[in-house]
Structures are given as C-alpha cells and as structure tokens.
Amino acid sequence: MPFRQTIPQDELRKSLTQDDLETYGTDYQASKGGHFATEPKPVPATPNQDRES
Q: Which of 8, 35, 47, 52 has the highest Cβ tally under 10 A?
C-alpha cells in the first residue's frame, strides 16, 4: 500500500476563489476553543495608523 501524500495548504488555497476564501476564512483559536472568523493581522515594519506622533 503506497503512502498517502499530503497536500500543502497553499496549494489548496490556490484552488479557492476570493468569495470562497471570505466565506471559509477562519482561524483556529485554542484560547476561544474553536475556529473563528479571521481578523486583519498587523504587517511587520509598518507604522500603526492609530498612534499619534
């Protein structure tokens, strides 16, 4: 019996449309106990727009 080949998540995401990504876009959050809608994540090395100088 041959070994089962795993498919990388990136390859699976390429086959989804933008609407599918928005519909099924969830992140697993162990602290909350399940999958929840994704929130925008901060981008490294970019200034925070909320902070006043």
A: 35
DSSP 51: S
For residues 38 and 25, give the distance between their C-alpha atoms in angstroms, rounded to a whole number: 6
Q: What is the residue type of 52?
A: E
pLDDT band at 25 (very low <50, low <70, confident <90, very high): confident
Among residues 38, 41, 8, the alpha carbon closest in space to that of 23 is found at 38
In angstroms, the CA 39 to CA 25 distance is 10
How many angstroms separate the CA atoms of 3 and 6, rounded? 9
Check if the beta carbon of residue 33 is closer than 8 Å to that of residue 23: no
Contact between 45 and 37 (Cβ < 8 Å): no
